[in-house]
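ok so dumb question maybe but i'm new to this and my supervisor (M.) told me to 'just get the structure for Flagellar hook-basal body complex protein FlhO' and walked off. so i did the thing. is this what she meant?? sequence i used:
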Amino acid sequence: MLRGFYTAASGMISMQRQQEALANNIANANTPGYKADQATIRAFPEMLLYQMGPGSTPAKGLSTANEIGSINTGVYVQEYVPNYIQGALKETGVLTDVALIDGVFPDETGSLFFSVQNENGEVRYTRNGNFTVDGEGYLTTTQGYYVLDAGGDPIQTGGMEFIVLDDGTLQVGQQAIQLGIAYTADANQLEKEGDGLFNGEAGQVPAGVTFSVKQGFLEQSNVDAVQTMTQMMDAYRSFELNQRVLKAYDESLGKAVSEIGRIG
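this is what came out, is it supposed to look like this??
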């Protein structure tokens, strides 16, 4: 009985964590470049059940026991995996807004990112092209992180007047600066951080990978609000079902303690 109690409890915990991921997706439905998280739910290792026959003891081994079959011992959320499918493009008309448009990738799990520098001077990656220019004339994210060029240096534009070509080249007056576009063959190895940043290994765009850059556009979040709300309702129903099972086990345990063995 206690095994079923813990199985139902693990189901409730898993649905709660899935609900948290879905709620976070909904909260970022309007965040440019946001990649929706998907909860990966797995079952705990199966247990093999045996029926002990008369005279069978652990000391004698299980040679006289009958095999019943296997049973699962609950579920758990193994990890949250971002969905790297590109979001829709939205025209803003703002010159500092830049959208990265995916082209052809030789790797199914490949993805492209803008390279930025966080407050600790470390390189991070983002799909959020909602850039601006700070007081010193550097191109930055709205959180204040420097946007990097192909050489890993902050980009100095001197103001808002610059042109971004389709190949990611910034034309600032007579100067041409290549945006730091990074590619990773396996985006699932990256770790999500706050402010739309990803941490991990990414490098220069190899041959065979195509992309384009659009100035005055933003890549929107790839969260499907309708589908996410449906998933939230399903997770809530699953939570409720496990809660009812847990309540039934609790009532059975209560009867076992208070009623079974009572002398009439």
